[in-house]
Design goal:
Elements: E1 17-18, E2 21-22, H1 42-77
Antiparallel strand pairs: 1-2
Amino acid sequence: MSRTIDTNFCFWCAAKVKDDHCTRCKRLQPQAHRKPNDLADPAYEEVMKEYAVVFLVVVLLIWLFVLIAKFLLYLLNT
């Protein structure tokens, strides 16, 4: 049986946690102890959309370069 970590309490002193910081010892909670709220962040979604657009543009440019290279090889062989 696996043990789940309660993210409402500090990893070190077991006090209450607010905004990923302990209210007693003021320590930032470890990454594995934090709630996975990065995916709900609108800024994160915008960045991922930009990465997707850049990825698609790079793939299309590579495809276009290969297509032009094949056409030039075809012209040279005839």
